[in-house]
Amino acid sequence: xxxxxxxxxxxxxxxxxxxxxxxxxxxxxxxxxxxxxxxxxxxxxxxxxxxxxxxxxxxxxxxxxxxxxxxxxxxxxxxxxxxxxxxxxxxxxxxxxxxxxxxxxxxxxxxxxxxxxxxxxxxxxxxxxxxxxxxxxxxxxxxxxxxxxxxxxxxxxxxxxxxxxxxxxxxxxxxxxxxxxxxxxxxxxxxxxxxxxxxxxxxxxxxxxxxxxxxxxxxxxxxxxxxxxxxxxxxxxxxxxxxxxxxxxxxxxxxxxxxxxxxxxxxxxxxxxxxxxxxxxxxxxxxxxxxxxxxxxxxxxxxxxxxxxxxxxxxxxxxxxxxxxxxxxxxxxxxxxxxxxxxxxxxxxxxxxxxx
Length: 356
Fold this sequence. Notes:
This is GPCR, rhodopsin-like superfamily. One of its GO terms (molecular function) is G protein-coupled receptor activity. The chain is α+β, with helices and mostly antiparallel strands. 66% of the residues lie in helices and 13% in strands. A 5-stranded antiparallel β-sheet has the order 5-6-9-8-7. The chain has a two-stranded antiparallel ribbon with strand order 1-2.
C-alpha cells in the first residue's frame, strides 16, 4: 500500500509531537526523583530507571520517517531499528518489575530494603534480555532479504521479510509478559479481597498488613505499668511507604518477670504507590501496544501495511510511552505529597494545642 507525501508528513509530525511529550515526561520523572525525597519509594525508583530507557525510545521515534528515507543500510536506519527493538521491550519488562514488587509486598511482606536489593538484578536482567537480540540483529544480513532492520514506512524496525523474527523476539514475549502481569495483578486483587479483615485501608491511604510471623517481647508488670504512666506503647510505628511496627526496645527483664506477650509485625503499605500507580502504568503501557499489534497482525495476514489511519495511530500512540509514565508518576506522587503535607500541618497544630 502506497501513501502520499502529505500522509507520510502528517504521520511524521504526529509521531514527533508525541516523542517530544515523552521526552518531557521522562525528564520530569528524572527531575522529580532527583529533587524530591518524596519520590523515592521502590516503585518510584523503578519508574526512574525506566525513564532513561524511555528517553532512548523517544529519540528513536523522534527520528520517525527520516530513518527509512536515509535507506536500509544507513547508520540512522540501523540505529532506529536497534532502539525500537530494544527499548519498548525494556519498558514492558520494567512494568513487570513493578508488578513483581507489588506481588512480593502483598504475598511475602518484602520491605523497602529487600525490594531495593532486587534493583541491580532488575537492571541486569532487563538490559540483557532486551539488548542481546536487538544488538545481534544489527549483524545479520540476507542475500535476498537484506538487513533485518529496514523500511517500515513510519520508521525503521524489523523488516517484513524478517517478520518471523519480529514475532518471536518482539510481539510474542511482550504479550506473554503482559499476560503474566495481568495474572499477577489479578492474584493481588484476589488476595486483598480474601484477607480483607487483615488488610485494613486507613484514612491516610495505607493498608495495614499483619504478617504471619510474630515478634516476641517479654516485659515485667512494673515495666508495663511504667509505660502506661509515660504514654509509651510496646510498639513504635515508623511512617514510610512500607513501614513496620517494631518491638519497643527495653532493658533485659528481671528474674521475677511475670508477663509474657507477643506483638504482631505489621506493615503499612501505600495503596497508591504499591497498587494503584503500578496498575495505571500497566494500563498505559497496554494502550501503546494495541495499535502496533493490530497493524502487525494485518500486515502478517495480508502481506501489506495497514491503513493510513492505523499507521497514524501506531506512530502517535507508540511514541507516548514516556509521556504517560510522566503523567502517572507526577499525578499519583503529588497526591501523596499533598496528603503527607496536610498530615504534617495537622500534627503541628495538634502539638501546639497540646503545649498550649
